[in-house]
């Protein structure tokens, strides 16, 4: 009996140690390494790197476009999640499976699809050019690329909440004469708000770091279409690792804050 207990405890400790080692080696050490390298020469070189006009304009542009993509995903993702949960129609299963397609595809493939569908040689791109505006190699293409790669986050965060929602409050609202819009905003929306917030933060964080799709469609013009991730790549290619690490620290810090906020929202939602 004691031998069996010792084996069980040994297996448990070994499993925990393996998981912790995996976490430390693949996540903690790389993140810590970026922070340490960014401040290797002190605060002054770090500040000089992030205060470079091209660098901070790239970060600000990334924040702006990621925010726009997140708003689009919140609006469209909420509607799609609602349709997938509340309606039954032919092809629903296929559509539900296609939601996860951006997770399966390499992001460079997504960028190539946008380039082929919306580029100047495409029908849509040609029509847009005749109307006086361009899509590819301009900011709209970056937003589309960010929307594509972050598309599933809001949908998958809202779906479980809609499926587990108690229908009694909704039915009571209709019984009391409330309209569909009033019922949605007063009864349904408060219950799915944690999912919307969590999915939006994940989409925003993912959009900040997108590279593969963006680099193909952005044009990478400083202060106009150069995003932070592409700027980091360019700094590494130019052998300016300190500049790349400095901007990486900004993105990492923001992503960690977003993850902390998501955790807080989920905890509050769980307690509610």
TrEMBL record:
The keyword Transmembrane helix applies. It is found in: Cell membrane; Membrane. InterPro entries: CysT_permease, MetI-like, MetI-like_sf, ModB_ABC, Sulph_transpt2. The chain crosses the membrane at residues 20-38, 58-85, 97-117, 137-155, 211-232, 244-262. SUPFAM superfamilies: MetI-like (SSF161098). Residues 59-263 form the ABC transmembrane type-1 domain. Keywords: Cell membrane, Membrane, Molybdenum, Sulfate transport, Transmembrane, Transmembrane helix, Transport. Its main location: membrane. Belongs to the binding-protein-dependent transport system permease family. CysTW subfamily. The complex is composed of two ATP-binding proteins (CysA), two transmembrane proteins (CysT and CysW) and a solute-binding protein (CysP). NCBIfam families: 3a0106s02 (TIGR00969), modB_ABC (TIGR02141), permease_CysT (TIGR02139). This is Molybdenum transport system permease.
